[in-house]
Amino acid sequence: MARITLSNLAHSYYPNPSAEEDYALKEMNHVWEDGKAYALLGSSGCGKTTLLNIISGLLKPSQGRVLFGDTDVTTQPTAERNIAQVFQFPVVYDTMTVRQNLAFPLKNRGSDAAYIARRVSEIAEMIGLEASLNRKARGLTADAKQKISLGRGMVREDVNAILFDEPLTVIDPHMKWELRTQLKSLHRQFGHTMIYVTHDQTEALTFADEVVVMYDGRVVQMGTPEELFETPEHTFVGYFIGSPGMNVIPARIEGDKAYVNGSHIQLGRGYGKLDGKVEIGIRPEFTTLSNSGGLPVNVRRVEDVGRHKIVRADFFGNDINIVAPEGVQITSDMNRVVFNPGKVNVYENDWRVNGEAA
Amino acid sequence: MEKTTNHKAWFLVLPVLFLVAFSAVIPLMTVVNYSIQDTFGNNKFFWAGLEWFSETLASERIHDALGRQILFSAIILAIEVPLGIFIALNMPKKGIWASVCLILMALPLLIPFNVVGTIWQIFGRVDIGLLGHTLEKIGIDYNYTSDAVDAWITVVVMDVWHWTSLVALLSYAGLQSIPEAYYQAAKIDQASRWSVFRFIELPKMQGVLLIAILLRFMDSFMIYTEPFVVTGGGPGNSTTFLSIDLVKMAIGQFDLGPAAAFSIIYFLVILLVSWVFYTVMTNLDKRERV
Question: Which residues does chain A have within 8 Å of residue B181's beta carbon, measured at their own beta carbons?
Answer without folding.
Answer: 87, 89, 91
